[in-house]
## 1
Amino acid sequence: MSDGTLTEVLGTGGWVHVELGLGGVTDKPAFMDRCARALGLPDHFGRNWDALADCLTDLSWAPPVRGRLVEISGWREFALAVPNDWSIAQEVFAEAADHWNGTATELRIVLALGGSS
């Protein structure tokens, strides 16, 4: 086990650690705003499910890296408030991770379980 932070450890391997905190998010517009900020999505991001999927499967707008680890925290409130939107979000994230699986630019998305009631 390393003594460094997750960001430091990933950085040594050329990976970027992205923290997507969803605490307090209870609707789709707020979810899209958090994604735009945390992921550094381009200005043309349309703040809808198709646009999010497009941005996550075409990373030409992002700096090149070996891989990205997106850590989603505080997601339970959103999941309980709008379960259908949460289901769609999970599909978008899963399809994006599958898209990059086995490529030179991996994308992994994990759900943090702590810190939520």
## 2
Amino acid sequence: MRTLCFWFGIAAAFFCGWLDPVWGYMAVCALALVQIAVLTVPGASAFLLIHYATILTYFSLAPALQIAADVSFWDAGVLDAQAHRQALTLLLLYMAGVEAARIGMAGPPGRQPAYTGLQSSGVAHPFLLLLSGSLAAFASLFIRPELNFVARGIVGEETTLPVDYIVYSTLPKLIVLMCFVALAIHAVHRRTVWAWCAAAISFALAALAANPVNTPRQILLVGLLPLFIHGFGQKWRWALPVLIFGAIAGLGPVLNLVSRGSFWGETLTTFPYSQDFDAMFIVAAILERAPSPDLGMGRYLLSAFSFFLPRDLKMFPDFDPLGWPEILNNFSQANLSLPPFTTAYFDFGLLGPVLLGLAISAGSRVLDRLVDRPVAVSGSYLSALVLLAAYVPFMRGPILGWGPFAASGLIAAVLAGVLSARVRRLRRAAAPLGAARTA
């Protein structure tokens, strides 16, 4: 039923977009809301829930209202309807690829009973996790403190600055955040005074290390969203899309004002007119202004994902659509981001967004299995949570910083998981044997 509803909605969005791109994006909004409502049942895919929450936040209501109001970003002017239709088509093809990978899969089996043969033993050494994570992170933060105030993107002429930025700023903050996530999950499971105290101390350290004044919001997404995926992924699933939409649409412009307003004079603009919600405008502007490029056969995506490397190590720097003169000469801001389904289009034509959606959705099935199992706080479990959380900034565009944040988040998750306990198997016969001996 859910699959049938989706394909009907995609066809309706194509038809509405052909008539008027505003109505096409409104159809995407309605489709995302319906899918979220269906996916909030126990046992449904956590990835699809996050996917549609991201679509709803960035790619539906915001562009519809912006196009209807003739909003113009960065001196790009008002874009024509044909460019918006093209951008909408790429989005719908990507969404179709995501769902096509799910064809033939069984529906959610409903609430599953807990595994009787497994028990989550929690964090083995909370103090060790707390001490090692905080000391290593804060030591790294104070080695290059100036890097903590690189608010967006990577600036400067140093050849090693991108790597230094990851090692001395991004990775340390995410280590502290992932230690907090592990200890918070441990506290929820154990419910002891010591466990809650360890979680509270780790939260205080995380607030110091990763504060919104000097931290890109991707760190908060990749670092904190895993905890909410764990907390809301099983029982209160409806709260997860509400959290994603509310935090980005409501809190995003406020953090934008706090983190950049005091330095660069940014003013507070609310959803959907904030520059955080301009992804489809950038896609439409590139499609309208740039000449038809040669197929990249994967080089556009590799160029996008490797942007955080030093220039000498960047893969295929000439295959960066945001570096084309036609784009640079038409925007007043060079720090743009491009959704990955657009670079996939440059690589493989209209088939590119479909193939990218297929690949991501197929891989997410592994993550769904890892997250759905009631296992201990381990490196694999935390990594699955990080990958699901990183999907939100990934869809916004890797140029904005998805690569280093996701990579650092995975490293931090593995480090926190190494210091966590493994699953131990219960002796199922212990109780019957004890009863027999008593008799």
